[in-house]
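Per reviewer request, we include the raw input and output of the structure prediction for the construct analysed in the revised manuscript.
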Amino acid sequence: MGTFKVSDMTCGHCEKAIKSELAKGDPSIKVDVDLKSKIVKVENLTDDRVMFLLKEIGYTPEKVK
């Protein structure tokens, strides 16, 4: 599971957009978003792909170790 800090995620719309973009119709991809802590956790998608997709929709993610 990859964990990412997305500091510029500010509202419910951001949460929905991130979940939608990362899952893109693949039921094996699990996305958990904690808006309060600005943490996104993703299963079954490579860290590089998550970073790419989040940047594509305008966010500045940081990988959390």
